[in-house]
Amino acid sequence: MDYFLEKLDSLLSIHHMSKNRLANELDISESTIRSWYKGSVPALDKVIKIAKYFEVSIDFLAGCETSEQKKTRLVSDNYASPADYTTEEIELIKIYRSLSDGKKQALKTLFGITTNTDTKNHLSP
Question: Which end of the chain is more exposed for a tag (fewer CB within 10 A), N or C?
Answer without folding.
Answer: C
